[in-house]
Amino acid sequence: MLKKLKSLFIVEDEETKAKGNPKAAQTPKQETSQPTPSEPAIKVDTTPTPKGEGKPDEKFVNRLLQAIEEANLEGFDYLEYKQSLQSIDDMNMDEATMFKSSLAMAKTMGATPEKLVSSAQHYLNVLQKEEKKFQDALTNQQQKVVSGRKLTIGKMQETIAAKEARIEELKAEIVKDKEALEATQKAADSDASKIHLTKTGFYAAYHIVVDQIKADLEKMQKHF
After folding, report:
1. Where does the pLDDT of residue 19 fall: very low under 50, low under 70, confident under 90, or very high at 90 and above?
2. Are the C-beta atoms of residues 14 and 55 closer than 8 Å to each other?
3. DSSP letter string over 4-55?
4. Number of H helices, E strands in the chain
5. Euclidean distance between CA atoms 56 and 17, whole angstroms
6. Which residues contact 123 (CB under 8 A, 6 or more apart)?
7. Given pLDDT bands bounded at 50, 70 and 90, which one contains residue 46?
8. Quick one: which of 63, 97, 86 has its CA closest to 7?
9. Is 151 or 188 the better-scoring residue by pLDDT?
10. Is 42 in contact with 152 (CB distance < 8 Å)?
């Protein structure tokens, strides 16, 4: 039954169209916009996407048709009417003639225009309930997964901010250490200069005294 329903609502899948229609195969794929760094890290839109956007997912097609199958009304209703429309689709009738011809056949099966319309609305309501289930599941998934990711991102941002603050503190400490290093270097240079002056002062005095003694020794050895 599921295969039969699929043949009613899905004429060709995208792959079949591409194989049978070279132009379809050459149609460029729509580019998916990538989030820029200024956009939120995670953003999920749970609102319905516009008709014609995206590619049908096989599992969702099967789920929707299965819901219709499970809610199938007894007797000749919209589904059988749609099947009769499909059976005369290749007879080159205009739309009005097709619908009226299928209605005439439906009446022989006990159907009425009101029943066909109400049964079509019935299946539409079934699909809308499936959409509501999907929306609830999507919202729950967003709260469960996306919100968890956002919490993780928030913690990571706090960690990064703390490390950046620590980097700024380290930079300030480095500036102070460099200033202290420069002051210490100047003090070391000053101390070295003082030591050098002390050394030169000592040896200047040393040589004065030593040189006099040496001179006296020479004279003593000469004259004694």
Report:
1. very low
2. yes
3. HHHHHH-S--HHHHHHH-HHHHHSPPPPPPPPPTTS-S-----SPPPTT-S-
4. 8, 0
5. 14
6. 68, 71, 78, 79
7. low
8. 86
9. 188
10. no
